[in-house]
Amino acid sequence: MKYGYFPGCSLERNAAAYDKSARAVAEPLGMEFVEVEDWNCCGATEYISLNLLASYALSARNLAQAVRTDGLGELVAPCSACYLNLTKCDKSMRESPSLAAKVNEALAAGGLSYKPGSMRVRHLLDVIVNDIGFEALRAKVTRPLTGLKVAPFYGCFVARPGYVQFDDTEFPVTLDRLLQALGAEVVDFPLKAQCCGGHMTQISEGMGLEMIRRLVKTADDRGADLIVTICPMCQLNLDAFQGAMNRHFGLNLHVPVLYFTQMMGLAFGLDQAALGIGSELVSSRAALAAIGATPEGEAGGPPKRVKKDDKALPMPAPLVRA
Amino acid sequence: MTEKIGVYICHCGSNIAGTVDCPEVSRWAAEALKARGVVVARDYKFMCSSLGQELIEKDIKELGLTRVVVGACSPHLHEPTFRGACGRAGLNPYLCEMVSLREQVSWVHTDKAAATAKAKAVVSGGVERVIHHEPLESLRVPIHPATLIVGGGIAGIQAALEIADSGTPVYLVEREPSIGGHMAQFDKTFPTLDCSACILTPKMVTVGAHPNITMLTYAEVTNVDGFVGNFAVTIRQKPRYVKADLCNGCAVCEEKCPKKVVDEVFEAGLGYRKVIYRPFAQAVPKYPVIDRENCTFFLKGTCKACEKFCPTGAIDFEQKEEIITIQVGNIILATGFDLFDARRIPQFGLGRLPNVFSSLEFERLCNAAGPTNGRVVMRDGVTTPRAVGIVHCVGSRDKHYNNYCSSICCMQSLKFAHLVEERTGATVYNFYIDMRTPAKGYDEFYQRLLEEGVIFIRGRVAEVTDVPQRPEEEGRLVVQVEDTLIGQQRRIPLDMVILSAGLEPRHDAKQVAKMFGISCSADGWYIEKHPKLDPIATMTEGIYIAGVAQGPKDIPASVAQGAAAAARVIGRIQQKEIALEPVRASIDETRCSGCRICNNMCPFNAILYHADKAVSEVNPALCQGCGTCVAACPAGAISGTVFSDQQVLSQLEGLLLRNLQPATV
Amino acid sequence: MTSATAEASHPVTVEKKFMQQVMVNTPGETHLEMCIQCGSCGGSCPSAAEMDHTPRSLIALIRAGNFEEVLSSNTPWYCVSCYYCTVRCPQEIHITDVMYTLKRMAVHAGIKDPCAAPDFSKTFVSWVENYGRAFELGLMSMFRLRHDPLGVLRITDMAVGMVSKGRMDLAPKSIKGLKSLKAIIARAKALEVVA
């Protein structure tokens, strides 16, 4: 399967490991990525804070470039912020012809145009889960991640606001299932769709570090060996600022943060260097050494109910969504 | 032109006269429609008043009117009034035509000149139509004295008792093994805190013993045929695997049954029951049922412990389901509600966090006959909570779930708060958006709770979490909420959270409504005939509704509706026969091609198909005169009295003013 | 009654005018008049503690027509765009998008920055406008030096770590079509009308 590919500024540098690993796992899964030619920054959450139309024009230029580069109609963005901005632009243009006309008037200044709806923008997680599927993933696993306890972390934009909805807005599950398919043990991580803090470390350091603390501390409390993310901003905050956070709160947490594509690559038996493993500031070496180890305390199965001395009340079963 | 037509234009106070020049319409009708047979036209402030009606009656007698057109509100409201006036003056009531100058003219326009012109056209259409009316006689059918009540909750029980006490037979059909409904699950009722079982079970016992009531529990209605006065109802009696005539209700079988399962219905999933069971001790009838899906004998072919120990030999594994057909004259639907499934709001934690409870779970938890004998404890079954939060509006007032206010949750939450406080001494928090306590004694109860020291925080809960942010939150639940009265986000550490979930229409309400030929609102509640003046009747004659099935309400209101529906039915039965509107469709057999398109279109299942002759026929007693089939028939074989092609086309001619002399337009 | 006559008989008050301005400047359908002040937004907001008003309170201020207090509030600038408020709002108000609108309106009105966030956005945008791509090291160092010179020291080890791991460029990179991008942005800005 062939997709247009929008790496975005982060994947070019700070999240190069994400880019590297995404491209590395694409091949065994039969995916071909065609990078959008001469793409520009999506504007993150900053541009739209200052100029609405210019921020849409920025994203629309990318969509127009994508149509020109590829023409397949499907554009994959591994970065959640890029994904949100591109989908937001396309959606707003589809819903408002007058906005679309203005955006196109701006694009015309650069000799471009974009017809709303002509690019279907998707997050890399969506493509892997829904186009490739868990069965095909399982078939590629040569080195199951058994023994590894992971906290799946979705962050905001894949779950919310849900312009393209492929998972729950509060408790998404696709990444959990993907990691399970790779053989990892997924810990209960209730904060999995909460905010990593975004740019908070820059504009209100204490608040930003507090948001990071909650996430890293909870992952640690829940027994995770590492956190797995699907977004470069989340990775940057949780990984690069983990040291500053520890210093700020007098903590000594050490929870490495890797991309889900790196986990896939590991399970597929790819070389760690080819996946950019080692570029994280909080080293994952010790955590990854757990792969293959037998999980401690093989007690097996949930505790049995309906014992004479068991006074516990039964609990509602979790809701199974269709 | 041989007809003498009178035209009467109602001002409806300023409702019509505010936008339509009524005297001008009247003057115009007398003049312009003279050639069409109008001999008199009048306008009057309230045509529906006695004086207004007398105007019409007087003209009929003195001027010898043969047709009457009234331009006023809607036929829904006053057609019977004006037909009655005609009838009293000796004119066949069906020679009166009512046109709407209010709903279709004054209320929907603002331009007075244009509205007046439209009113004239509407009156002109009425005049052309009424010319083709024919005198009709209403159809009289006998009323079967028996009544079917569907649903054995408090509304259905009340209705059954009222009707049975009046001396006519009642069939009470209930899907569960016992009557009692949701009220049987509650411990206390607001605002008086009387014990729910203490006030409900005497009524249940009376129902069980009443000579005029036939209870069909563990049974469901599967088909309804017929019409008001003469319904034929098919009921599926599920096998109990217990012979009612032999069982003495000793409950030895329940005691000896070796298998327990979670009781998802009566115990709301919070407790267990045996596989042979009565939902609760005071169940009516007293006979248990065997839950076939979980019974070891049915699953594995061995066990039969119940049979071995039954002292009267009442167990019967061979029992089969029975199909029962009954005849009734009237039907009351009191099918109740389902509780909103709070697991649909995952951030509230039900099903994920053990100490989050649904409101029905809590009702069972604090019930003296419940799984903990009324001890308010946490999910471990042992620990008493020190701080409890009650979340209002769960699944209600929310565009993602239900838009409406479930109306009982504020009071239910206050009741919970009181019970928690009384039994555990815990600190209780109520998280509300708006407090709604608008009935007798309700706000006084709110005052009482304030006095008792319950804490009220105005804010819709954002989430319930077990992830601590501060040391005091470790190992506890935390409710995160904006305290909107101080404009600050707060995190309240708690041991237990109760979700006051809203009321929803039964999951199968739409199918049930379709079976009985009534409609549901967009929210799924049964639609009443009139939201204020006829909340217990439906648009289908002979079908009444009562209780929460009509819309969220509390016990007093459900009881009142049950009694009101019963009063209406009793009145009907006493009339012995009912006059049916003669507005009916009929099929011209010679033109019917037997295509059966009309069969499925009819919302009242009034059209029969005769396979032998390959033609369809309208059952006049079932037909409500809606006209759907008339419009649908591709062969034009169906016509409706009062809705003949000639009548409709003439009315159109009139509306287009093609009936006028060119000079008068 | 048609909307035209509704307006004629109910003149737009100062309060309503400001609320309508906010709604007009927000893409999509946003109905601030439907807010029931339940506080789902303020309860859900991860950065509520930093805000001078909760989002709910800000909506109340918008409806009161108190534009000065609204536009000088730090609330929109501390919004982290997590969209929890938006998906949880029982009235389906697009609160996050409203926060973006308020930021744009405040900048447009020339309101004094209530915190460092506006300058962060401006710095970020200037790199994008000049090169077509974001430049993290430049952004972080320039911004920090202006707002928290000592803070530069606190992140030095992080920056060194990032550079040594090859995760930070030392100089910005330009896109090829920069000229056309600049023309697009210039045209877009000229077309942008803030009501």
Q: Characteristics of this structure?
A:
heterotrimer; A: 322 residues; alpha/beta; four-stranded parallel beta sheet; C: 195 residues; mainly alpha; Fumarate Reductase Iron-sulfur Protein, Chain B, domain 2; 2 domains; 12 helices; disordered N terminus
Report the β-strand fraction of chain A as a percent range: 5-15%
Distance between the termini of chain A: 27 Å
* Element pattern of chain C in H and E: HHHHHHHHHHHH
Largest sheet of chain C: none
As residue ranges, the low-confidence spans of chain A are none
Q: Provide the gyration radius of chain A in Å.
A: 21 Å
Rounded to the nearest angstrom, the radius of gyration of chain C is: 20 Å
Which descriptor suits the 3D outline of chain C? Answer: globular
- How would you classify the quaternary structure? heterotrimer
- Please report the number of helical segments of chain C: 12
Overall number of strands of chain C: 0
Q: How would you characterize the overall build of this protein?
A:
The complex is a heterotrimer of chains A (322), B (665) and C (195). Chain A is of the alpha/beta class and 322 residues long. Chain A has 15 helices and eight strands. In chain A, 43% of the residues lie in helices and 9% in strands. In chain A, the strands form two sheets. A four-stranded parallel β-sheet of chain A has the order 2-1-3-4. Chain A has a four-stranded parallel β-sheet with strand order 6-5-7-8, sandwiched between helices. Chain B has a five-stranded parallel β-sheet with strand order 10-7-6-18-29, covered by helices on one side. A five-stranded parallel β-sheet of chain B has the order 20-27-21-22-23. In chain B, helix 5 crosses helix 6 (196-209). Chain C has helices spanning 3-9, 14-24, 40-44, 55-63, 67-71, 75-78, 84-88, 95-108, 117-131, 136-147, 151-164, 178-191. The model of chain C is unreliable at 1-8 (pLDDT under 50). Chain A binds chain B through residues 168, 170-171, 190-191, 214, 218, 306, 310-319, and chain B through 260, 262, 269-272, 341, 343-344, 346-347, 350-352, 354, 358, 361, 365, 371-372, 379-382, 465-467, 469.
